[in-house]
Write a structure and sequence with these properties.
This protein is mostly helical and 189 residues long. The chain has helices at residues 10-29, 35-42, 46-52, 56-80, 85-102, 110-118, 126-136, 146-165, 171-186. 71% of the residues lie in helices and 0% in strands.
């Protein structure tokens, strides 16, 4: 049995957050920025940046973790806004595409994004909880399991992002189309 990791000091957590914030802003405009440039943008020394993120991949994973947290917040907000199941699914489509568009600079790191997504625990996932509740009320198709529906949201979102990045649709159209795809695929009919 391994010993639990010691708690992270508040200043260390703050430094880590500052680096991630700076990297997200910098990489959005300059996707190939160096770790030195990230350190400069954060206002922290390179040793502090490398102590928190020994490799660029470690930093990219941390950015993806932040995006997953934002995604959870998007789901919570879409559900809290109320309306019909179809309304929520359409809102989710628009918001998910918007999230992807903001972080399109991470396209080159899609593998790390999928790795981060797969590591997320499902037991407290707000989307899965909403799917289960909505399906129990008969508002989502009963022919697909909640876990399957949940698992298909991400690939559909990736497909929408790919269409957007290829210039086949604009952001508004991609969000609308993704929402409509969710409705037609998952809503009880």
């Amino acid at each position: 049995m391994t010993a639990p990791e010691p708690p992270v000091r508040a200043d260390a957590r703050r430094n880590r957050d500052v680096v991630v914030d700076a990297a997200m802003l910098l990489l959005a405009h300059k996707p190939d920025a160096s770790m030195r440039e990230v350190a400069d943008a954060s206002g922290l020394g390179r040793t502090t940046v490398y102590r928190n993120f020994p490799t660029r991949d470690d930093l990219i994973r941390a950015i993806f973790e932040r995006i997953v947290a934002e995604g959870r917040a998007v789901v919570i907000a879409a559900v809290a806004a109320g309306g019909s199941t179809e309304d929520v699914l359409r809102r989710l489509g628009v918001e998910i595409v918007s999230l992807g568009a903001r972080y399109r600079f991470l396209e080159a790191h899609a593998g790390l994004g999928q790795e981060t997504w797969r590591r997320q625990p499902l037991e407290d996932d707000p989307l899965l909880a909403w799917i289960r509740e909505t399906q129990a009320r008969g508002e989502l198709t009963a022919t697909l399991s909640p876990e399957w529906i949940h698992g298909m949201v991400s690939p559909l979102a990736v497909g929408a992002s790919e269409q957007l990045l290829a210039g086949r649709v604009d952001e508004a159209r991609a969000g609308w189309l993704l929402g409509e795809t969710f409705v037609r695929a998952f809503a009880a009919g």
